[in-house]
Amino acid sequence: MTRLAALALGLAVAACLACRQSDPPPPPPPRPALPATEVKRAKDACKAYVDKACACARSIPALDQTCKLARALPDAIQVSLDLGASTDASGSDLVQAQDAVRKIAKECIEELARLPAAGCP
C-alpha cells in the first residue's frame, strides 16, 4: 500500500506542477509615456524654429536650405511619438523613441538660438 500511496502522491504533485505551468503570464507593466507637457514643449520649440527660420529665409536667401531642413523636424517628432505609442514597440523601442523626441527638441532650441548669428533678427 505504501507504493500505491507514493505513486498517488507523485501523480498529485505532477498534476499540481502541470497546473502551474499552464497559468497565463501576468500582463506586462504599463509603459511610461512622455508627459504631455514635454511633448507640447518639444512641438512648440520646433514650430517656433520652423516659423522663424522660414520667415528669415524669405529675406535671407542663404537660409532657404535651413528652412527646408527645419520643416522635417516636427514630422520627425510625430514619427517618434507614433513609434513609442505602437503596441508592437518593445520597451527599448519606447526608450529610443522618447530619446529621439528629446534630441529633436534640443536641436530645435539650439538652432533657433543660432538664427541671430546668421543675420536673422
Written account of the structure:
- Helix 2 packs antiparallel against helix 3 and helix 2 runs parallel beside helix 5.
- With 121 residues, the chain is an all-alpha fold.
- It is rod-shaped and about 100 Å long.
List the helices and strands and how they pair.
Layout: H1 2-21, H2 36-59, H3 64-70, H4 72-85, H5 91-114
Helix pairs in contact: 2-3, 2-5, 4-5
Please count the helical segments: 5
Largest sheet: none
| Beta strands, count | 0
Task: Please report the distance between the alpha carbons of the first and last residues.
Answer: 98 Å
- Pick out the low-confidence regions: none
Mean pLDDT: 85
Compute the CA-based radius of gyration.
Answer: 28 Å
Helicity, in percent? over 70%
What global shape is seen? rod-shaped
Order of helices and strands: HHHHH
Beta-strand share of residues: under 5%
By secondary-structure content and strand pairing, the structural class works out as mainly alpha
Question: What keywords describe this structure?
Answer:
single chain, 121 residues, mainly alpha, 5 helices
Brief digest:
With 121 residues, the chain is mostly helical.
